[in-house]
Design a protein that fits this description.
The protein has 181 residues and is mostly beta strands. It has two domains: 1-81, no CATH class; 93-181, Histone H3 K4-specific methyltransferase SET7/9 N-terminal domain (Single Sheet). It has one helix at 3-8, and strands at 10-13, 21-24, 30-37, 43-50, 60-64, 67-71, 74-81, 84-92, 97-104, 107-116, 119-127, 130-139, 145-151, 154-162, 168-175, 178-179. It is 3% helix and 63% strand. The chain has a 16-stranded mixed β-sheet that branches. It contains one helix and 16 strands.
Length: 181
């Protein structure tokens, strides 16, 4: 969700913790965020963002001013600054892929792990959403990507380079971004 979306939400109090706030969907009664906010109603401090898709909602409800509001599936949570995850947190990308670790401006940044179907899929240190040290994925501006081992942001170890259409182009052992023959 963008910062603009949070600004359109209706502000309410959290009946379970008077120090926290609830942001309600601007058109529906869904709880979209529960936690601390700044003076602009943006998530700021520890909090959890929930999905706004009714089909994903669990049947957990909260009563606010006598009105029942639905709380959905947790989408992401952790420490927020000005409406973006910054610091330690987690994010569900879909039902199978989850990231737990550090964020900077909503992107994995620092030590973190991606889980796929509850198994470790990528692990290491991230810089701006790409693996820097460890096993993971480096995303390039031209739309290509590399999945494998990296050291200091360079391809080092076993890995695969994919083109824009997600076809593997080069596979093998890399040393300092050079594929070994």
């Amino acid at each position: 969700m963008s910062i603009d979306f949070f600004l359109k939400c209706r502000l309410s109090y959290d009946p379970e913790d008077s120090k926290k706030t609830i942001l309600l969907h601007p058109k529906k009664a869904y709880v979209v965020y529960r936690g601390y906010v700044d003076e602009h109603k943006l998530p700021h401090g520890h909090g959890v963002q929930y999905t706004t898709y009714a089909s994903l909602y669990k049947y957990k409800t909260v009563s606010i001013d006598g009105t029942i509001h639905y709380i959905g599936h947790r989408l992401r949570g952790g420490h927020w600054i000005n409406g973006k995850l910054n610091g330690k947190g987690y994010q569900y990308y879909n039902r199978e892929l989850i990231y737990r670790g550090w964020f900077l401006e909503d992107k994995p940044h620092g030590k973190g792990t991606f889980y796929k179907n509850n198994l470790i899929d990528q692990d290491g240190t991230w810089v701006n959403g790409s693996i820097y040290n460890g096993y993971g994925t480096i995303f390039y501006e031209d739309g290509t990507k590399y999945k494998g081992y990296a050291i200091n942001g360079m391809k080092n170890g076993e890995g695969v380079l994919f083109d824009r259409n997600n076809k593997d182009v080069e596979k093998g052992k890399w040393i300092n971004n050079i594929l070994q023959q």
